[in-house]
Write a structure and sequence with these properties.
483 residues; mainly alpha; Leucine-rich repeat, LRR (right-handed beta-alpha superhelix); 3 domains; 7 strands; 50% helix; LRR_dom_sf; C-type cytochrome domain-containing protein
Length: 483
């Protein structure tokens, strides 16, 4: 009972946290504790469902006398949830996250923490009163687990994007079989080949990662071929098609595609691809035409269920993209910025820029975009109020390829935050105060191809040194593009 009463003080403190605003500044020690939040939260997330499992097992008499185990687990959950809520508040107070989603997660986290503490208190109260409050205890135990799931979903959405936890449910229940084409209307290229290319090939042969210089996101790109100099598909001489040859090689051959470690094409997929190429690689060839060929009829019959699964997956992704476009469109209107689909990519990617004439764009607007950081491939914040500290957030845009920051107040101290962007190819720093010391950080950028440094205080000696150490990167003393 003493342990139960001891939990009422932190419970009251958690309620007070709901009314405290973010701090103006925090010391490095508090910031460090705040960043432990994503690590610590796994304890109550695991422990509270474990208590529920113990109760169920005890109810069906599978587990005898679970009381001691439950008391220990609840105490561990209570202590850990106090640490989680404290760290969560410090992370919230740091200002590194913002927006309505953050506030929803913060409130849900407080409610989850309160639920853990009250559930623990009621459990010990039950022991003291011979089970008098057991119904209340079980009710709070169930509700607390539901709130934890909700808070976890909101936290996942903050980190990974909206609908993170439930995204695949719509793939299971949302897209119906009737949404697919009837077999008589299906095209070999569009409805059979494109889906397995999208699943097994395009991850290495897209606009972001063009292995061997071969692009597979369009029919014309398939025909063209890659660095080998051979056409991907040679309609005149199908047997010479590089694509045909690569998938036909033995699995242990170094040039076999897909390479080792990737999910290979099935025998049915290879048979369909080969027949399509040798038949002229027409985009209008129908599946029913293949069914008329004796050797292909059983292949098509056996493969259609797998094809239906892949097509349902693509339909789901298309639905998700439309949903994402609506969400980003509403956010863009609210923040007075421009967000558009990146038509040069094959995935759910977008570009971000300021409206013309430029309006103010601050760190608060940037933070409001945080749940969607992974979808941006090009960002133009020319003449914005972005500072070097804000580059920390831009450094979390993991798919960013082009970044335009001309005419901002950058001094270069924040360039270190951009070093780990794996795909950043173009960076425009013209008309900024980036200096010699900070610009040397560019040496550590893994994928940088062009950087514009027009009208910056950088010395010619440093420019020369950069060109020597980064021969694969163009160091350009010109204004460069704005978008």
């Amino acid at each position: 009972m003493i342990a139960g009463l001891f939990l009422l003080l932190p419970a009251a403190s958690m309620i007070l946290l709901l009314f405290l605003p973010p701090a103006d500044s925090l010391s490095s020690s508090w910031l460090f504790i705040g960043r432990l939040h994503p690590l610590l939260l796994h304890f109550p997330i695991v422990l509270m469902p474990l208590v529920l499992i113990f109760e169920i097992l005890g109810r069906i008499r599978f587990l005898k006398e679970p009381t001691r185990a439950i008391s220990l687990v609840l105490l561990a959950a209570s202590l850990s949830c106090i640490a989680v809520v404290l760290a969560g508040y410090l992370l919230y107070a740091s200002g590194e996250y913002s927006g309505n989603l953050l506030m929803d997660h913060f409130r849900a986290g407080i409610c989850a923490g309160l639920g853990v503490l009250v559930t623990t208190f009621l459990f010990f109260l039950c022991q003291l009163t011979a089970g008098r409050f057991r119904k209340w205890y079980l009710t709070f135990l169930l509700l607390t687990n539901l709130v934890i799931v909700h808070a976890s979903h909101l936290g996942g959405s903050l980190t990974h994007g909206q609908d993170y936890l439930i995204a695949h449910l719509s793939a299971i229940f949302g897209t119906k079989e009737k949404a697919l084409k009837p077999v008589d209307e299906m095209l070999v290229y569009e409805d059979l080949i494109v889906p397995f290319f999208a699943t097994k090939c395009i991850s290495c042969h897209n606009e972001h990662k063009m292995k061997g210089g071969y692009l597979m996101t369009s029919y014309q790109a398939l025909l063209k071929g890659g660095e080998s100099g051979q056409p991907g598909i040679d309609i005149a001489e199908p047997e010479q098609s590089e694509l045909f040859n690569r998938v036909s090689l033995p699995a242990d051959h170094e040039d076999h595609m897909p390479p080792e470690g990737k999910k290979p094409l099935t025998d049915h997929e290879i048979a369909i691809l080969k027949f399509w190429i040798t038949s002229g690689a027409s985009t209008t060839l129908k599946v029913k035409n293949l069914q008329q060929h004796t050797e292909m009829a059983p292949v098509i019959r056996d493969y259609l269920p797998e094809s239906a699964r892949l097509n349902r997956r693509l339909l789901y992704l298309k639905e998700e993209k439309e949903k994402l476009k609506k969400q980003l469109g509403a956010l863009a209107e609210k923040l007075q910025i421009s967000i558009a689909e990146d038509l040069k990519t094959s995935g759910n990617f977008f570009t971000l820029s300021m409206k013309f004439p430029p309006a103010t764009f601050t760190d608060e607007q940037l933070k409001a975009l945080q749940p969607y950081f992974p979808v941006f491939t090009k960002v133009s914040l020319v003449t914005s109020d972005i500072t070097d500290d804000d580059l920390y957030f831009i450094g979390n845009m993991t798919n960013l390829r082009k970044l335009y920051l001309q005419k901002t107040d950058l001094n270069g101290s924040g360039l270190v935050y951009l070093q780990q962007l794996p795909q950043l190819e173009i960076l425009n720093l013209s008309f900024t105060e980036v200096d010699d010391a900070s610009v040397l950080q560019l040496i550590k950028f893994p994928a940088l191809k062009k950087v514009y440094l027009f009208d910056t205080p950088i010395s010619t000696e440093v420019v020369k040194a950069l060109r020597q150490h980064q021969p694969t990167t163009e160091i350009l003393l010109e204004e460069g593009p704005y978008n």
